[in-house]
Amino acid sequence: MFKKYSLGVADYVIISLTLLLSAGIGLCARYFKGQQKIASDYLLAGRNMPKYPVIFSIIVTLTSTSSFLSSPAEVYKYGIAVSVVTFMVPIGMLISSSVIIPVYFNCEVSSITEYLEMRYGRIIRYLVSVMFLLQTLFYMSISLYGAVLALSAVTDLSFEVSIVSLGAVCAFYCSLGGLKAVLWTDCFQAILMVTCLLAIYIAGIGDAGGITELFQKAAIGKRLDLFEFMPDITRRYGFWACATQGILIGVSFFGTNQVEVQRLLSLSSIKRAKSSLRMSSFPVCLMYTACCFLGLVLYGVYYNCDPILNKERTGIRKYDQIVPAYIVTRFSSYPGLTGLCIAGIFSASLSTISSCLNSASTVTVIDYLIPIFRKWNISDLKIILMAKIVSVIYGGLCIGLSFAFQQADSIRHLTQVFNTLPQGIICAVFLFGMLTRKAGDKCISFAAVVTYIIMTWIALSSLYARYVQPTLPLSNSMCPSSQNETMSESIFNVSSSLLPPPNTEKDPFVLYKMTFMWYSFVGFLLTILLTIFAVLITGGWKKNVIPADSKYLSPVTRFWMDKNDESNLELK
């Protein structure tokens, strides 16, 4: 019979110190790292941050609990094909550094949605702003919930106390110190995250029998098939889906998402921002790859005794719990080491939530509150106060929404839907504005709204269709008192209390079976095509809405137009 692991005194001390130090760094950033005299001091760290804290923050901000818990679980079940995403992300980051980031500096914006109003108009600015805020709120709530749920299932950590503690600490140092506190805290949390990964790798490779035997087991279990070129949109991790998704993540999250872009805007110049993003591309790839390959290590450990198939003894009900389950069973004899690894997982959650809180409050204040209070000539100190209050409010919403997810069995698919569904649309809106001189506010808004409706329909319909894609073979043949079996798990992993029973009478519509890895690209492509369609039917193709030398255009676009002009002059 399974019994939850009881954390020791040393474990609780380390976890508590992690939270206290995070809060302490926030205090130091507020009182010893400069005054908050103007709004940019709080929202953008005075635009004079050193490069290396920004690079550390870029690396860990999107390394959430999904990366630490769900990514290893996906590799454990489906193999390393998903790691193609991580190899392609740096390509997208390099594109962002050259094509997108310079435009924000030229326009001198604090919120990237400000650019949209400059380039198109108000309608698209507020549409994208709403999409971003909803996306961010759900993402940080899922990140908070995922870490606490997985750990509370295998330890005696209180689910309620953990959620409130993590959420409260995050809201405290984020609201107090602003972006500067978030950046410096991310540096501390990055160390804990790397320590946790190293500890699991060192122990796991040894338990699996060494690197050679580990890869032999993975090869026998068909976990090493990296290149699946068959163009099948229903395949969970096909090569083309993963490659496209990786490039789009690099462009969208590091070029058209306020959370990451805000870090770059805290630097003093375009040159420093571009070099910081390029310097962080390899560490980002390395961090994500390390999280993915953790699943391969755990597959080697549990090669013939899958803990979920042996759940009567292990108590593990879902694969998101496999990382914390290994931590508590393997490190329980080392005082404090379990607590250190749990602190690493909590740090992944804290870095994501704090970054999202700061960016959400920035967008809310700049897009909504400042325009409302503009006629009263609101001071910078009051703007800072409003941003702090908004951060606390979003922290409370994050905690409350995390409790609302308690009915979900697993949230891997939900994370992908909420996080990637709007990002392709938003990326298309920005790139169309920076790379072309066509399309006004109404055309681009029409395309964004229609695409969002279509993609939401596809995502939710696929969720309720409950199409099941089998996992790779899993075995518990060497477990005590067990029989050989294999197991398949629904890609949706959502509690049956929330969904209708699986439809076994007929095959779902092909779009409902489409893997969520295609959502971003389909949203991106559909937004571009609908924008072109709107421009054509309204006659917008006959005129340019901005001049050729506009600062709203990417330097790449202006360079290309200059070359064309030179070629035309030579021909004449």
Topology record:
Layout: H1 9-31, H2 39-43, H3 51-61, H4 65-78, H5 83-107, H6 112-119, H7 122-154, H8 159-207, H9 211-220, H10 239-255, H11 258-265, H12 270-301, H13 311-314, H14 322-330, H15 337-373, H16 380-404, H17 412-435, H18 441-465, H19 519-537, H20 555-571
Helix pairs in contact: 1-8, 1-15, 3-8, 3-11, 3-12, 4-12, 4-15, 5-10, 5-12, 6-7, 7-8, 7-15, 7-16, 7-17, 7-18, 8-12, 8-15, 8-16, 9-12, 10-17, 11-15, 15-16, 17-18, 17-19, 18-19
Brief descriptors of the model:
572 residues, 20 helices
Secondary-structure element string: HHHHHHHHHHHHHHHHHHHH
Structural class: mainly alpha
| Shape, per Cα inertia axes | globular
- The CA-CA distance between the termini, in Å, is 86 Å
Q: Report Rg.
A: 24 Å
Q: Count the beta strands.
A: 0
- The helix content, as a percent range, equals 55-70%
Number of helices: 20
* Low-confidence region ranges: 482-505
Q: How much of the polypeptide forms β-strand, as a percent range?
A: under 5%
The description of the largest β-sheet is: none
> Would you tell me the overall average pLDDT?
83
